[in-house]
């Protein structure tokens, strides 16, 4: 799908709530949004009407909404739809950061639209947005355990320190491209991030 000229107005970070899931592989998207909020001196606060932690930061003199759903991963769409409807944000103006089994730790890739690829958070968001798949994704590589039966236990575990550092490095690399996405220059952001 061709990169749009759409300017991002909402960044969502997927994860599971609760201390036992902190810094697990499945929470890479949440880790990204928390890092984004810190980078721009934001403050993620509980917002009951959005079923998550929400923030508003200024990037390139533009408002950017941040959201970390506090529902479980497979109910992420409830939070995304609630905030998007309230602020009249179109699916094409949403970037969802999530963990990606099909990429190695340390790799971050942007993608426009597409299916859910078996990711329960993405599946629920697509459904909650009226089966609209046209939102963007920031795919943060966590690697694959090699056996499909081990996926659920693998994603809910913390990565070994060396792998975790690579995931954090990928988050830092992706953060640099948020101003470009807020300005709508997808081609540039993809070109630069994907050559890392």
Short description:
The chain has helices at 28-39, 76-86, 120-128, 151-155, 161-175, 178-182, 186-194, and strands at 10-13, 45-47, 52-59, 62-69, 94-100, 108-112, 136-141.
List the helices and strands and how they pair.
Layout: E1 10-13, H1 28-39, E2 45-47, E3 52-59, E4 62-69, H2 76-86, E5 94-100, E6 108-112, H3 120-128, E7 136-141, H4 151-155, H5 161-175, H6 178-182, H7 186-194
Parallel strand pairs: 1-4, 1-5, 5-7
Antiparallel strand pairs: 2-3, 3-4, 6-7
Helix pairs in contact: 1-5, 2-3
Could you name the CATH topology?
A: Rossmann fold
Number of domains: 1
Secondary-structure element order, N to C: EHEEEHEEHEHHHH
User: What's the pLDDT, averaged over the residues?
Assistant: 94
Q: Indicate the low-confidence ranges by residue numbers.
A: none
Gross morphology is globular
CATH superfamily: Peptidyl-tRNA hydrolase
Query: What structural category arises from helix and sheet content?
Result: alpha/beta
Largest sheet: spatial strand order? 2-3-4-1-5-7-6
Extended strand count: 7
In DSSP terms, counting alpha (H) and pi (I) runs of 4 or more, how many helices? 7
Task: Report the CATH C-level class.
Answer: Alpha Beta
- The oligomeric state is single chain
Major pleated sheet: 7 strands, mixed
Keywords:
7 helices; Rossmann fold; seven-stranded mixed β-sheet; alpha/beta
Written overview of the protein:
α1 packs across α5 and α2 runs parallel beside α3. 43% of the residues are buried. By secondary structure, this protein is α/β, with parallel strands linked by helices. The model has no long low-confidence stretch (mean pLDDT 94). It has a single domain (10-194), classed as 3-Layer(aba) Sandwich (Rossmann fold), CATH 3.40.50.1470. The chain has 7 helices and 7 strands. The longest helix is centred in the C-terminal third of the chain and has 15 residues, at 161-175. It is 34% helix and 21% strand. The protein is globular.
């Amino acid at each position: 799908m061709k990169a749009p000229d759409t300017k991002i107005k909402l960044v969502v970070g997927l994860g599971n709530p609760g201390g036992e899931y902190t810094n697990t592989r499945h929470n890479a998207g949440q880790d990204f949004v928390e890092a984004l909020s810190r980078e721009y001196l934001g403050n993620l606060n509980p917002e009951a009407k959005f079923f998550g932690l929400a923030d508003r930061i200024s990037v390139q003199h533009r408002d950017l909404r941040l959201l970390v759903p506090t529902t479980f991963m497979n109910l992420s769409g409830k939070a995304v739809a609630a905030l998007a409807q309230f602020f009249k944000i179109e699916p094409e103006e949403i970037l969802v950061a999530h963990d990606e089994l099909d990429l190695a730790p340390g790799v971050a890739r942007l993608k426009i639209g597409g299916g859910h690829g078996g990711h329960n958070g993405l599946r629920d968001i697509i459904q909650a947005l009226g089966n609209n798949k046209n939102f963007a994704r920031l795919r943060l590589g966590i690697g694959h355990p090699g056996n499909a039966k081990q996926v659920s236990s693998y994603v809910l575990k913390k990565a070994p320190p060396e792998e975790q550092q690579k995931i954090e490095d990928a988050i830092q690399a992706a953060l640099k491209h948020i101003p470009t996405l807020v300005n709508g220059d997808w081609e540039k952001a993809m070109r630069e991030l994907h050559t890392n």
